[in-house]
Amino acid sequence: MEGLIGVLKDTALRSQKVAKLLAGYSRLVSEPIRNAYERERMVVEVEKAIEGFAPGEVRDKVRQWLDEEKRQIEAAKEEFKFEFGRQLLAGLEGSGLTVKGQLPFLRCGLFSVRVDFATGRATVFWGPEIERLKSGVKLEPLALAKILRSYDESLKKRAIKEPAEFVERLFTAYRRICLARNIVEGERVFLVDLLSEMVFLMQSEGFRVNPVRERFVEYPRIRFSYDLYILKRSGVRTVGGKGLRLSVANFDATGEKAKSLWVPDNEEGEGTYYSYISFVNG
Question: Which of 172, 178, 255, 270 is deepest in the core (most CB within 10 A)?
């Protein structure tokens, strides 16, 4: 008797769990294509929940339902992929961001997107998967387009406006590094080291007196990369009789952030890795 009661209680608990899952699933079916991947995850949970069911009519019916839902979900996933690309393009219309490539990897102007349909998430990168900007982005194409537009607009808004002034700041930072390290001017220094010096020069007197977070001026790698792109595009190269020279990184250095920096060559996302900077006569 007690064993039978235990079996019935266990069956009742499992049935309640399945019923709860199915109730949640029914809400997803209101937008079957948009929720395709969430439906897939829910179906897996239902499948696990009925493993403990004894063979019989209830278990068979649930399995029949699962088989049919799996077929429908596969069709919805294909439709979702098509709609995803179409809506992303619509969301980026007028932004100037050109979209190239094929899902799951897309190049969007100077950015790129890696889509993981299995998890329903995307990762946004600067350049061709160079700097991870945002991960775990839900696969909502219009929201993703908004993120890309925001990064692009922020970069352009904060980019250098006077290339000649920027090259002077680069030269000042370069000379400070040479002086501090007893390096002869004209020798190469790592671009990333120069970035650190540039950040220091950007800080206010108030920050130097009291270096608290609220007074710190950020200058992340992505902005430095973009500013160097603007500088290259401007054609400005000289300051004080010295010419700026960027040295291309060797293959091994491209994978090390401390030794190289990716800089765009054009608006389509092609670019070059550089390791060193120097200012030479002429």
Answer: 178
